[in-house]
Amino acid sequence: MELPTFLKRTNYANPTDVMHTVVQDAYKLDEGDNAFDWLQKDPTTLAIFQKFMSIRRQGAQETWLSVYPVEEETKSWSPDKAVHVNIGGNVGMQNAEFKQKYPNVPGRVTLQDRPENVAKAIQTPGVENIAYDFFTPQPIKGAKFYYFRTVLHNWPDDKVVGILENTKSAMEEESIILVDEIVVPDVGASSWTTSIDLTMLCGHASTARTQSQWDEVFAHARLKRLSTMEYHGHTGESLMKLQAL
């Protein structure tokens, strides 16, 4: 177990550098590699990760699609414009669920992720799979929904701000960002939620955030949270709707 040794060495401070985490110590990562770089170099572990992320909530009755008024907000949307951009969406399970529930919503649907994930992406009719680095400006301009599911919790605050700013650069007046994440309660968090928090600390120098912590990050990116819609009470999984300031 590397965590106690790591914490002792760092004087029990929360890590904030993705290049210096428990994962680097435990797996002896190459210099300059973070956890996702390591996965790219280990095809067996990458395949396990991709599978886990694609099935973890597969078949769940409660998802963001249970609480968000997609049809109402897209009824006059142009079919020539992007409607749903799933950023960091692994192999595209969320795209598949979106198309299954809303096959007639107008507009283009896109998956964006690292090349190694896009190479294994689900081939969903009507979904375009594109390799994209979200630390660079978003190339798809003026989409209705820029959607992140359990992506931002993998990164410390400064990196999240950068990701959101790159997305914001592509937004137009009707665009919104949808952040599908755990929102940790101020008191009484479940053991599942706190285990995710510890995983983020060890692997990514990050954390599972409370609503006030999320709002602080959004404010630094000049984004305003319009609403939070919880769809799974035990885990705190919620959809946060953001608008550019």
Main features:
single chain, globular, 245 residues, seven-stranded mixed sheet
Description:
The chain is an alpha/beta fold and 245 residues long. The chain has a single domain (3-244), classed as Rossmann fold. Helices cover 37% and strands 19% of the residues. It is built from eleven helices and seven strands. The chain has helices at 3-9, 22-27, 35-41, 43-55, 64-67, 70-74, 93-101, 115-118, 157-168, 191-204, 211-220, and strands spanning 82-87, 108-113, 127-131, 145-149, 176-182, 223-232, 237-244. Strands 3-2-1-4-5-7-6 form a seven-stranded mixed β-sheet, sandwiched between helices. β4, α9 (157-168) and β5 (176-182) form a beta-alpha-beta unit. The longest helix has 14 residues, at 191-204. The chain is globular and about 55 Å long. The relative contact order is 0.14. The model has no long low-confidence stretch (mean pLDDT 93).
Question: What are the SSEs and their pairings?
Answer:
Blueprint: H1 3-9, H2 22-27, H3 35-41, H4 43-55, H5 64-67, H6 70-74, E1 82-87, H7 93-101, E2 108-113, H8 115-118, E3 127-131, E4 145-149, H9 157-168, E5 176-182, H10 191-204, H11 211-220, E6 223-232, E7 237-244
Parallel strand pairs: 1-2, 1-4, 2-3, 4-5
Antiparallel strand pairs: 5-7, 6-7
What CATH architecture do you see? 3-Layer(aba) Sandwich
How is the biggest beta sheet arranged? 7 strands, mixed
Query: Which oligomerization state do the chains in this entry correspond to?
Result: single chain
Structural class call reads: alpha/beta
Give the CA-based shape.
globular
- Count the DSSP helices: 11
By CATH reckoning, the class would read: Alpha Beta
First-residue to last-residue Cα separation: 44 Å
CATH superfamily descriptor:
Vaccinia Virus protein VP39
Spans of at least 5 consecutive residues whose pLDDT stays below 50 are none
